[in-house]
Design brief:
InterPro entries: Glyas_Bleomycin-R_OHBP_Dase, Glyas_Fos-R_dOase_dom, VOC_core. It comes from Streptosporangium nondiastaticum. This protein has an eight-stranded mixed beta sheet. It has three helices and eight strands. The two termini are about 20 Å apart. The longest helix is centred in the N-terminal third of the chain and has 12 residues, at about 15-25. By secondary structure, it is an alpha+beta fold.
């Protein structure tokens, strides 16, 4: 699998304030979207997330988001190392994603920019 980059997940109470802070720190402009009941802003290498605690508690279990060229290729490599697929692959606002638990117990989201 070809890993293009990693995004850190940050759960925040005040998304607008957090966007101001992270835009200033990264020099990047926020890209906003919603995922279920959660408002998300991608700012540089950060995913800022705000919403109901019941949804954020699930999202906090994912260590990071890893951008890959192809989720299908990632699935093959994840299977080869014994990872457990928890969710997906499913379409997202920017492509497709899959959530996997690695053999050590770490949980990661893998995303590509291919449309389903």
């Amino acid at each position: 699998m070809n890993i293009l980059g990693t995004s850190l997940r940050v759960c925040v109470d005040d998304l607008d304030h957090a966007i101001d802070v992270y835009e200033r720190l990264t020099g990047a402009e926020a890209l906003r979207f919603h995922r279920g009941g959660v408002a998300v802003a991608a700012v540089g290498c950060f995913f800022l997330m705000s919403g109901p605690e019941r949804e954020l508690s699930i999202l906090r279990k994912i260590t990071a988001t890893i951008a890959v060229t192809d989720v299908d290729e990632a699935l093959d490599d994840l299977a080869a190392v014994g990872a457990q697929i928890i969710a997906g692959p499913v379409p997202t606002p920017i492509g497709r994603n899959v959530v996997a638990r690695h053999p050590d117990g770490s949980v990661f989201e893998y995303v590509d920019r291919k449309q389903a």
